[in-house]
Amino acid sequence: MSGDSGPEATVATGNAVLAGIAAADAITCIAAGRRHRGADHRDAAALLLEVTGDRRISGALRELVDFKDVAHYGVGNVRAQRARAALRRAEVLVEAARERVGL
Which one of 2, 54, 63, 96 is most buried, by most CB atoms within 10 A? Predict the structure, then answer.
C-alpha cells in the first residue's frame, strides 16, 4: 500500500475482514461442527473462544470485526496503517484455520 489512505487500503481491509470471518467459520466447523450464523460477528468471536479455548484467535477476530463497518460501509477510505493491522489479524486466523484443516 503506497499511500496513507485510499481505495486500495479500504478494499484490502474489507477483504481481510471477510478472510478472517471465513477462517473462523472453518475453525469452528472443524472444532464443533457448526459456525456462527448471526448478524453480529462479535458473537462469532465468542463461539470461536468457546470451541477452541484460544484467546489469541478469538481476539484477532474480535479486533478484525471492528474494521468491518469502516471497510464495507464507511464513506471515507481506510488508512494504510489500519489496513496493515487488519491484514495481520486475518493472517492469524487464516494460519490457524490452515493448521486445523491440515493444509
Answer: 96
Find the largest Cα–Cα distance for the chain.
Answer: 42
Give the whole-angstrom CA distance, residue 61 versus residue 47.
11
Any long-range contacts for 73-82 (C-beta under 8 Å, 24+ apart)? 74/10, 76/5, 77/5, 77/6, 77/7, 77/9, 77/10, 78/5, 78/9, 78/10, 78/12, 78/13, 79/4, 79/5, 79/9, 80/1, 80/3, 80/4, 80/5, 80/6, 80/9, 82/9, 82/13
Amino acid at 93: L
Residue 60 lies in a domain: yes
User: How many domains does one find in the chain?
Assistant: 1
Query: pLDDT of 20-35, one tens digit each?
Result: 999 999 999 999 999 9
pTM for this structure? 0.90
